[in-house]
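Handout, section B. The chain below has 148 residues.
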Amino acid sequence: MIDPRVQDLCDEFEIRIVDRHRYPSVGETRAVETLRLIIERWGIDHARLVMSTLAETANNRICLDEVGFWMTSDMVRVGRRIIEERASDWLATWDAIPVGELQFITQDLRGFVKQRGALGGMVYERLYRRFGPFADQPDLLDDRRRMA
């Protein structure tokens, strides 16, 4: 049985819940237990920010799985001040981050490094470049500067 809060959250963002034995497509998830745990631990408003960050940004509707949700939850907690002060910049930055591609890269680390942490590190590095203390100092040799 799916927690009604999880169902409501998925319905709000037009995310289809699929059977846990089926591989989800874009805009689908089977990580209902992960969402329930995030709601239990951090509350529905936090879970809504997590879902918004993934579901309302370009190319990230493919990352609606356990690793994607937990990593995004971590980043929402780290970036709470940014979200409160610069929500549109937060979403624009996530639009530019190829989270699905980065998550694919972390597959190579399976068995060596926890994927949530590996993916979180790659995403945080990009958030830090955009919002960190040196965000206004361009590094002309870094091609990722162009994304922000």
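Note. The first strand starts at residue 16 and ends at 17. Compare this with the example in section A.
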